[in-house]
């Protein structure tokens, strides 16, 4: 095998897909903390509330040849920003709906957002119900069985994480990536690349030009 062929084979083996992901949930459940733990591997107890939405990106390695890039929209949980949320989850391929395992009311708010997604978001969206603050297990008000049963009933992914310690945060995003239609996305990207090449092709210099 020539060196050029080997290089081409290596390049074709690398696969990259990009997906839009949105976080929804009541204010103070830790949406921004989860994102910052995933993106920057950092945590602060004094994080200010998100205004409108924040945008971040992060990649995650699925296997030796496949990388997924998340375009992450972290939405504000305050009531006054609720009407804006649809701007951010429109065309999203994945959503994390976050609740606080130590606050009973936060699961009810999460259920509201799940209903909104099911009504208005893309039909194929991957939804994960995520319980945060696993580090406060002794203060738990929502049992894992209760939340898991609700997620199972609606066919959702379910995870519990701790943004503070980082426990299971990366695993949660990787599990979501594995549920996304990677092969379909990669196929679409390949088709777009081929169309771009075809449009940019120049006529052969051997072709005769009409002098009509």
Question: Can you describe what's shown?
Answer:
Pfam families: Ras (PF00071). The chain has 212 residues and is an alpha/beta fold. The protein has a single domain (15-182), classed as Rossmann fold, CATH 3.40.50.300. Helices cover 40% and strands 23% of the residues. It contains seven helices and six strands. The chain has a six-stranded mixed β-sheet with strand order 2-3-1-4-5-6, sandwiched between helices. Helix 5 links the parallel strand 5 (126-132) and strand 6 (157-160). The longest helix is centred in the last third of the chain and has 19 residues, at 182-200. The protein is globular and about 50 Å long. The model is unreliable at 5-10 and 207-212 (pLDDT under 50).
- Overall mean pLDDT: 83
Largest sheet, spatial ordering of strands: 2-3-1-4-5-6
Number of E-type strands: 6
Please tell me the total number of domains.
Answer: 1
Fraction in helix: 25-40%
At the fourth level of CATH, the homologous superfamily is P-loop containing nucleotide triphosphate hydrolases
Strand content: 15-25%
For the record, the CATH architecture stands as 3-Layer(aba) Sandwich
Q: What is CATH's topology name? A: Rossmann fold
Rg over C-alpha atoms, rounded to the nearest angstrom: 22 Å
**Span from first to last CA?**
48 Å
Order of helices and strands: HEHEEHEHEHEHH
Characterize the largest beta sheet: strand count, sense, and whether it forms a barrel. Answer: 6 strands, mixed
Total of helices = 7
Main location: membrane
Membrane topology: Lipid-anchor
GO molecular function: GTP binding; GTPase activity
Protein name: GTP-binding protein ypt5
């Amino acid at each position: 095998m020539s060196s050029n062929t080997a290089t081409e084979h290596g390049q074709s083996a690398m696969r990259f897909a990009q997906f839009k992901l949105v976080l929804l949930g009541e204010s103070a459940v830790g949406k921004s903390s989860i994102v910052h733990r995933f993106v920057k591997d950092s945590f602060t107890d004094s994080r200010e509330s998100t205004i409108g939405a924040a945008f971040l990106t992060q990649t995650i390695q699925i296997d030796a040849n496949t990388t997924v890039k998340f375009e992450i929209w972290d939405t504000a949980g305050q009531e006054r920003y609720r009407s804006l949320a649809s701007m951010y989850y429109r065309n999203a391929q994945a959503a994390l709906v976050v609740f606080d395992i130590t606050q009973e009311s936060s699961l009810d708010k999460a259920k509201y957002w799940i209903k909104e997604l099911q009504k208005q978001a893309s039909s194929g969206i991957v939804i994960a119900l995520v319980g945060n603050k696993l580090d406060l297990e002794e203060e738990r008000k929502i049992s894992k069985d209760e939340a898991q049963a609700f997620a199972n009933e609606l066919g959702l992914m379910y995870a519990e994480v701790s943004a503070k310690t980082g426990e299971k945060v990366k695993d949660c995003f990787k599990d979501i990536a594995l549920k996304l239609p990677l092969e379909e996305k990669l196929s679409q990207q390949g088709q777009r690349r081929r169309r771009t090449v075809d449009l940019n092709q120049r006529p052969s210099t051997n072709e005769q030009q009409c002098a009509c």
